[in-house]
Amino acid sequence: MVTVRLRYLHGFVDKTGRVRYYFRYRGTRWPLPGQPGTSEFTATYDALLKKCLPTKRGSNVYFAPATMGYVIGKYRASDKLAKRARTTRRSYGQLLDRLQDLCGAALIADLRERHVRALRKEFKAPSASDRAVMMVRLLWQFAKEDLDMELGPNPAAEVERKHSREWSHEPWSDEFIVKFLAEARPRPNAQRAVMLLLHTGQRVGDVATMQWEQYDGRWLRVRQAKTGKLLQIPCSEALKEMLDSMERKSPFILTTLRGGGYSPGALSNMIHDATARLGAGEHTAHGLRANAAVRLAHAGCTFHMIMAITGHATAREILRYTKGVDQAKLALEAVERLEVANLRTKGKQNSG
To answer: Tens digits of per-residue pLDDT, 240-264?
Structure first.
C-alpha cells in the first residue's frame, strides 16, 4: 500500500473498506473527492490550501477577499506603507508576517475586542504585544477607509497598552556624561561616539554611518535614514575641536579596529557595554538624543530651533524630551512676563 503524504491531509478507512480523505486545518475538516492523483482531488486540495494556509510576505498564496490576509496584502501594496521610512517598513513587514500567520484566514469583520486581546497574548514582550494591537487597529482603519469595507467600531481601539512606559530611552545625567567621557572604554571611540550623539542630536544609525565627506570644517550634512530628511548641522566648538584633531583612518568618522564603519547595532552595543562597565547599563545610546534636545531647551531654544537640529517632524516629539526642563525656572519667567504685561496695561489705563 502506498502512503500518501500531503500537508493537512488525513485519511481513514470507512465501513466498506474504502480509503477516504479529508483536509484538516485548525480543527476544521473538509472532505476531499476521489483519490490522490486525480484531477478532482488535486483541484479541491489546492483550493483549500490556498484558502487556509498563512504565508510569508512575497508568496503567491491567495487570501479570499474580506480576510485579514487579504487586507494585509492590500496594505503591503499601498502607498501608506511605501511612504514610511525604510526601517519602519522592515519592522512593519515582520509584524504583518506574524499577524498573517496567526489570523490571515479569518474574516476581518468577525474580529472582536476579545479576539484582539487573545491575539495580544501570542506576543511575549509587552512592547511587541502593543505593536500588534496597534497594527490591528491600523489594518481595520485601512480596510474601512481605503478598501471601503462595511465594518463597525474598531475592536482594537480600547485595548489598553501593556507596555506602561511611553518612552524607554531616558536622558543621561550630566554627572554620568562627565564620568563616561573620562573613563569609558574602548577609548577613544566611546568618547567620540558620545560626542557626536550629544552634539548632533541624531539617531544611532545616522551617527554610525557618518563619513568625513559630510563634514566641511564647520557643518555636518546628515541625510536621516528614517525620514530621508537632509539636515545641515553647525558643529559646536567642542565637536569641531574633536573632529579637527582626529586622524582620518577611513571614509567613516567612527572607525572600528578593522578599519571599517560601525553598523547601528554594533555602535549601540559598544556604548551599552561601556555604560554597563561603569555601572549604568540602563543608559542607552538613543538617550543622548534626548540630552541634545534638553540642552538646547535649557539654552532657551524654541521647539522649531530644536527640531532644526534633531530633525523631529513634530513639536510633540520634542515635548516628550523636554517636558522636565527646569520647570521652576520657566514658571518664574512666565510670571515675570505676566507682571510686565500687567504694568503695561495699568499704564495705558492711567494715561487714558
So the answer is: 999 999 999 999 999 998 888 998 8
- What does the DSSP 8-state code read for residue 231? E
319-338 burial code (b ≥16 CB/10 A, e <16): eebbeeeeeeeeeeeeeeee
- CA dist 132 and 122 (Å) reads 9
DSSP notation for 255-295:
B-TTSSBPPHHHHHHHHHHHHHHTT-TT--TTHHHHHHHHH
The Cα 350–Cα 352 span in angstroms is 5
Q: For residue 108, what is the DSSP state?
A: G
| DSSP code at position 230 | E
DSSP state of 162: S
Give the amino acid at 218: R
CA-to-CA distance for 72 and 111, rounded, in angstroms? Answer: 14
Rounded CA separation 239/291 (Å):
15
Instruction: Report which of 298, 284, 287, 290 is spatially closest to residue 327, judged by C-alpha positions.
Output: 298
DSSP-assigned beta bridge partners for residue 32:
21
pTM of the model: 0.59
As a dihedral over the C-alpha atoms of residue 212, residue 213, residue 216, residue 222, rounded to 10 degrees, the angle is -90
